[in-house]
């Protein structure tokens, strides 16, 4: 199947919101992380990052999950001079990890999820800006 970071970003965000509204913190939290990750990878791709033709995956600068991609995105963006698409310096996903999908749901709280929800909102603003400016065609 073809990699589509934008579609993945949107569907993970939509599902995260449904789970958030139902106070299902653990899965909402994971999906907020996936959504933010895919949103940033989508922007990196639109800024010129090429996907491997065989695997459909990004090169090293685009690999990893949101706890790493937040910083990798900033490094990539700055390196190519994509101004106006800057993330805040502090990574709201520093305490998010892909392995938390195995954690007991009692480890998650609304406060933890709210931090990640705000983080994905920052990514959403950048994606929407790229759409409005014609850098991202949907």
What can you see in these coordinates?
- With 138 residues, the chain is mostly helical.
- It has a single domain, classed as Four Helix Bundle (Hemerythrin (Met), subunit A).
- The protein is 56% helix and 0% strand.
- It has 4 helices and no strands.
- Helix 1 runs antiparallel to helix 2, helix 2 runs parallel beside helix 3 and helix 2 packs parallel to helix 4.
- The longest helix is centred in the C-terminal third of the chain and has 23 residues.
- The protein is globular and about 40 Å long.
Strand-residue fraction? under 5%
- Domain count: the total is 1
Oligomer: single chain
Q: Please outline the major beta sheet.
A: none
- Rg value: 15 Å
Structural class: mainly alpha
The first-level CATH class is given as Mainly Alpha
Per DSSP, the total helix count is 4
The first-to-last residue Cα distance is 18 Å
How many individual β-strands? 0
Q: Name the helicity range.
A: 55-70%
CATH architecture level-2 label: Up-down Bundle
Stated plainly, the CATH topology is called Four Helix Bundle (Hemerythrin (Met), subunit A)
Mean pLDDT across the residues is 92
Poorly predicted regions are none
Global outline: globular
Q: H/E element string?
A: HHHH
